[in-house]
Specification:
By secondary structure, the chain is of the alpha/beta class. The protein folds into 2 domains: 197 residues, Rossmann fold, CATH 3.40.50; 169 residues, Rossmann fold.
Length: 380
Amino acid sequence: MKKIIILTSDGGGGNLSASNALEGYLKDDYNVQSVHVFKDLLLSLDFVYVFSFKRYSGESLYNSFMPKKQFRFIAVFYYIGILYIQLMSKKIRTILYNYFAQTKPDYILSVIPIINDIVLSIAQELDIPFLLIPTDLDTRMYILNIKNPSYKNFKICLPFHDKDILQPLIQSCISADYISIVGAALKPNFFEPKNNDHLKEEFLIPPNKPIIMVMMGAQGSSELQRYAYHLLTIENPVHLLLCIGKNSNSKAALRNLTIPAHITISIIEYTQRIADLMTISDIILSKSGSISVCEAIYTNTPLLLDATSTILPWEKFNHTFIKTHQLGLSITKHKNISPIVSNLISNAMQLEEYKNNLKKIEKLDIKTHIKNCLKTLEIL
């Protein structure tokens, strides 16, 4: 079996979610190995790791600040990291070159940002086909310093054919020959048929109530409690799916909230069944990560994206994307949560318009299309 190395990262949940999905899709036909680049290969160059005397890494620091919504710090830290990587590019290239020369993969796949120009130069020198699979709809950080590529065995795999998603590639003189639309790198259960009635029974959800799902990522966030507080002021009967992820401390705080008789709730801890929960939901309130946005698109569920604090630079595009395509709205103030949700529940025509717009977006099954893309590179 031919060997694939997937470059992934522990920074945030999106990269790991995508690489795990790809590994699952490809493992029957290829020998697939995921490598956590910054932790497994480049840790010795991590300035956070060095200056914290090996107590923290850049990724662990990033992950610790995400649930607290300290996005200004994260953005500054991220851009400092980009500059640092540029300064250390020769050392990074040496480490990665030696790794690929030693492991001899038949393909390289990357779901991580920033260092792909270095990976591309190595892949071209060693003549290893390279697939870049951005996990953000905003591809700029993934194609950083990649301009007018000339390596025939290079492909950038995108989830949707959309002029705004393609624009950064066009600006970098990346021709259509290097672009393939393969679908979003989501877990298999997002492509499986669902029985909504059975799922509602299984999750003990009362019938005939609109379902509002709130999720703030796999790590969870204290922000979810604030959203729940405002949602409990809705006068309409609703059921709230409060997905706390790995933030188990949220459970006690949520249970201490006063819940009106016309509102019911389910507190959902970290689960592999997000696709099922999204499918039965009428509205999703979510942080603005691209994986969450793609998941909602694939389940045709209208989105309300959190914009109550600083938006991470690479997630700003997601807010523009859902507004441009009329898939939902951004929530800029906590006091607007209840009125916006109440209005959507009461205004069936607006909610249906969002759902119809979601259905119009072509949703490819990445399992099939990523394999076809690999086979195309085999011929070249």
